[in-house]
Specification:
single chain; two-stranded parallel sheet
Length: 119
């Protein structure tokens, strides 16, 4: 809302976060939680599509407190036609699959394809 435009840069996602020192990041995490709670009170619980992600990205970019370059090379997005077995590395985050039952099915499908390759 303040004009902060992060364009297409990688950001924070609670499904793939790694925090090496919780004590050091506690003030930032508390700020994120407070803003999420304030926005929910002001605009309703459904105002934030991804719950914490929008706020965490905003706080992270405004305060330059997250290193997204460390983990990003090892994370791929999972979903329909997005997770090829070739070139596999790191982890696959299935955020792009909208419903939990569909997500579980895609994860199982991906795991089965990995098993076929490993054998």
């Amino acid at each position: 809302m303040d004009g902060c435009d992060v364009a297409f840069r990688h950001g924070f996602n609670s499904g793939t976060i790694g925090i090496p020192n919780l004590a050091a990041h506690a003030p930032t995490l508390r700020l994120i939680a407070r803003i999420v709670a304030n926005r929910a009170v002001a605009n309703g619980r459904d105002a934030l599509q991804f719950v914490d992600q929008e706020i965490a990205n905003y706080v992270g970019y405004r305060n330059a407190c997250f290193d997204t370059a460390l983990l990003s090379p090892f994370v791929r997005v999972g979903g329909e036609g997005i997770t090829p077995i070739e070139g596999r590395r790191g982890l696959v985050h299935f955020w792009a699959v909208p419903k939990s039952q569909q997500r579980a099915a895609k994860m199982a499908e991906y795991a089965a394809s990995l098993e076929r390759v490993v054998r």
